[in-house]
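This part of the workshop introduces the protein records we will be handling. The question running through the whole workshop is how a given chain folds. To make this concrete, we reproduce a full record directly below:
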Amino acid sequence: MRHPLPRRPRSAGRIEAIAVPARCDCLRAMRVRMRIRRPEVSLAMNEILESFFNHTTDAIHVVDLERRVTKVNPAFEKLFGWSAAEARGQVLPLVPDDRLGEEQEDMRQLMEGRPLGARETMRRTRQGRLVPVSVTTSLIKDRSGQSCGLASITRDMTSRNQMEELLRQSEKLSTVGQLAAGVAHEIRNPLTTLRGFLQLQQQTNRLNLQHNDLMLSELDRINLIVSEFLILAKPQASKFEQKDIRFILGDVISLLDSEAHLCNIIFETRFTEERCVLACEENQLKQVFINVLKNAIEAMPRGGLIQIEIGRQGPQMLMVTIADEGTGMPESMMAQLGSPFFTGKEAGTGLGIMVSQRIIHMHRGTLDIRSEEGVGTTVTIMLPARDAATGDA
């Protein structure tokens, strides 16, 4: 409720007292109390920040615009080896020589007012040891809004990286075990067939040409399994060359076109007119495309359309999409896709997807498979454009 001030007619030369409601006194008192409490709140906040600075396990250091250290916390001393007294006023050689360009680019972005997220990189300790870290750097501004320094929070990633490596090794051992068991099982079956036919011929003392054809077929299957297993098992000494992926995939389509025609399947291609050059091992990529297209053909017993697209996903990436109208796969099968010797085909080895994933990974790309039962399957392959795969992009 508002309290209007009383008014009286004024007389010249007279000073009159005007009554002021009590609420105005209360407001003044509140303002005084707030002015008194602000330093207290500020002090409490400073204490909280100081406690965080001193007790966090992440290394924090503050530098001026000349990169001279103004403050470090105990975690920084522990990680990098310089005491606060030794570091103060110094430009510390924390950034390895091979990361200086990356660091300069980060600083340029910060000074332009663009914030930086956490970056995983390497830092050098006082003893010269390189440490994998995650660094978040922020610009510090004074009260006038002028840049006056930089604050960096550095987290040691050594333990996490070691745990990830142990997990990768564990997964590798598990995969090797599955592969070994799978190879033994897959080879034993045709060997059992071969042994049976040979024993039968030995007993009858007769050569059966039909049996010979079956035995040759089983030997071919063993050879296929061993060949695909070797691709997975041994490192590939690949010589990457500049190639246009449109021509590579075009060659594969020409190779499989007659087979597709016999199955009443049409290849519909949509290739960008832009050059799609990448650094690659041509024959390995052809093997991937053959695997994917043959899978698509075999998934369409009644024929249909296979759509093949090549385009760009931004300036740095090429995208190949192969979509069929086949039987598709249920979620239960998708969950096991890529496991050793898992296949939904009677004559398949289950290694084709693993081989394809390995080849695409070697080219620093990704292979994604989406499928819906009764609708079809779409395979999307992303690969770095130009010579990005060799690090010269």
In short: Residues 238-393 form a domain with the Heat Shock Protein 90 fold (CATH 3.30.565.10). The chain has four domains: 21-55, 57-156, 161-234, 238-393. The chain has a mean pLDDT of 80.
